[in-house]
Amino acid sequence: MDRTTGNSTAAPLNTYHDAVAWINNLIPFGIRPGLSRIELLLSKLGNPHQHLKFIHVAGTNGKGSTCAFLTSALRQSGYDVGTFTSPYITKFTNRFQYNGEDIPEETLLMLARRLHPLVEEVAETELGSPTMFEVATALAILYYAEVCYPDVVVWETGLGGRLDVTNVVTPIISVITNIGMDHTDILGDTISQIATEKAGIIKPGVPVVSLVEQPEAIQVIREVAEKQKSTLYLAGDQFTYEQVQVNKDGQKLHFNGPFRELDVELTLQGKHQCANAAGALMTLEVLRQYMAFYMEEEDLQKGFRLASWAGRFEKVPGEPLLILDGAHNPEGAEMLAQSIKDLYPERKLILMMGMLENKHHKLYFEHILPLVDTLILTEPDFRRKMDAAQLKNMVEELRPSYAKPNLDIIVEPSWKQALSLLKLRTEAEDLGVVSGTLYLIADVRAALLHQTDSEKGW
Questions:
Q1: NCBIfam families recorded for this chain (predicted)?
Q2: Is residue 356 within 8 Å of residue 418, measured between CB atoms?
Q3: Given this model, what pLDDT does residue 184 score?
Q4: CA 298, 301, 305, 307 torsion: positive or negative?
Q5: Please, are residues 378 and 421 in contact by the beta-carbon 8 Å criterion?
Q6: Closest CA relative to residue 399, chosen from 421, 377, 372, 434
């Protein structure tokens, strides 16, 4: 597409790969907060989003896992469920799921062909071209509203909330998992500012479930919920939860809500997953109690037990013991460190990591460095990657205060070579972990699981 005139320079969309290439070619238009382009695009389609029931999920960490719990439990209870998430781990079609299955390639092509001329029309207005994420969001809405008709759509925000493209919908319930320091260049650099952006998904009269903990974030969410006349279900107030059992196969959560108490087993590891599961449970309890959703307790139990989410403390089959975890911000690193201490306290830790450019990596290292024996710094195959040598400078600065005395640091920009080193360095009694940006996790996971159709991206 010509940026100045808005005229198409793309070839016709003949194949699935043409369609994905066209959508990804909109990436240079960047992240442009605001709803005007998506509203115009959807109005040209007859506002199909108005016919769907959404569960809107925002938060700094835990969005994907929360969506996985909600999807699994609802499906187990007999509902047809659409799930829209990002970024994807394996393939572009991962974003658009119906009952746990990716959108078929030919369906994506059909919908992209339908959107293509309308995107061009919007690009010719003063609003400029829709972004990649805006087109993906419109495609998801078209898929759910006009192709597969789910009973409910689990709808993950892209970034923030208030001005995020996904906020074009009015959900039946909103969920805010937590607030942390991420995307501060766009969302603000205080907890209150970030909380204000996330609280932007709270709609008039629509109930909201939240697990936020910081007093200033709680205050923001309370005020917005009150202003919108939305009932707030806040962890620690309207519901509580605790991890009552943990082992290498999973954990058990005790949930105490306003309507009943439940014990639920989780296969997903890490104490933070208890929080995500509790938020999902509270969400389902509100749907059950007030919106006539029918869910048997044993179906809920099974749904939570079966829920899985790629790249979140995910154990790779085989030897040596390797775990993939997309922790890429300070809060994620803290959760990862806690999970390692809880489950593998006696093992030497060989950590491979790569990041995108961002200013909070020092805080990330402060959480994880005290546990690391060998650190392999690498670079994701992505345009905004952080130079591995820069990461090393950061670590050297922190080494005296945070690192083990004999910390071994290896800089290997090629992630493939770094992965070979990780496997080589991780002995049978050690723990190997790959962490950092999901762009790195996506490539490593595809390599380890021998997935040939990996595309990975935003």
A1: folC (TIGR01499)
A2: no
A3: 52
A4: positive
A5: no
A6: 372
* b/e 70-108 (16+ beta carbons within 10 angstroms → b): bbbbbbbbebebbbbbbbbbbbbbbbbbbeeebbebebb
327's tokens: 């922790």
pLDDT at residue 160, rounded to an integer: 74
C-alpha–C-alpha distance, residues 292 and 287, integer Å? 7
* Percentage of residues of the chain with pLDDT beyond 70: 93
Neighbouring residues of 40: CB distance < 8 A, sequence distance ≥ 6: 122, 125, 127
What's residue 452's pLDDT?
60
Residue 331 corresponds to which tokens in the numbers above?
């809060």
Backbone angles phi, psi at 403, to 5 degrees: -90, 160
Mean pLDDT of the chain: 91
Q: Count CB-CB contacts under 10 A for residue 249.
A: 8
Cα–Cα distance measured from residue 230 to residue 286, given in angstroms and rounded to the nearest whole number: 13
Reply yes or no on whether the pLDDT at 183 is more than 70. no
Confidence of residue 453 (pLDDT cuts 50, 70, 90): low
| Whole-Å CA distances, 270 to 25, 267, 369 | 37, 10, 18
Residue 9 pLDDT more than 60? no
pTM exceeds cut of 0.85: yes
**Res 331: pLDDT:** 83
Q: What are phi and psi of 32, to 5 degrees?
A: -120, 95
Helix (H) / strand (E) containing 352: strand 349-354
Task: List, in sequence order, every beta strand (DSSP E) within 140-215.
Answer: 152-156, 173-176, 208-210
User: Residue 208: beta bridge partners?
Assistant: 174, 232
CA distance 171 to 287: 12
